[in-house]
Amino acid sequence: MGGPSEKPVRKRKPTLRAALEAAQKAGKAVKSATVKDGEIVLEFGEPTAGTNDDWDRKLAELKRGKH
């Protein structure tokens, strides 16, 4: 009757940050990252030159780079 109760171990979902850090540690350049239904999809490769958008231009005006 008096045994220790075992808590079920909950499996945690990987975070986007952890996936990006793992890719960086492996030396892979991440082109894009998406999260859909708890699944993280990383697309590898260098971003193309035509991917600059309004935010990139605004950051350049403020002299602030990407993280």
Task: Supply the key terms.
two-stranded antiparallel sheet, 19% strand, elongated, 2 strands, alpha+beta, 67 residues, single chain, 27% helix
Rounded to an integer, what's the Rg over CA atoms? 19 Å
**Which class best fits the helix and strand makeup?**
alpha+beta
Order of secondary-structure elements = HEEH
Query: What is the strand content?
Result: 15-25%
Question: Which regions are unreliable across 5 or more consecutive residues at pLDDT < 50?
Answer: none
**Largest sheet: spatial strand order:** 1-2
**Assembly context of the chains:** single chain
Biggest sheet record: 2 strands, antiparallel
- Mean pLDDT metric: 80
According to DSSP, the number of beta strands is 2
Distance between the termini: 56 Å
* Overall spatial form: elongated
Tally of helical runs: 2
> What's the helical proportion of residues?
25-40%
Structure description:
The protein has about 70 residues and is of the alpha+beta class. It has a domain at about 15-60. Helices cover about 25% and strands about 20% of the residues. It contains two helices and two strands. The protein has helices at about 15-25, 55-60, and strands spanning about 30-35, 40-45. Strands 1-2 form a two-stranded antiparallel ribbon. It is elongated, with a radius of gyration of 19 Å. It starts with 15 loop residues before the first helix and ends in a 6-residue tail after the last helix.
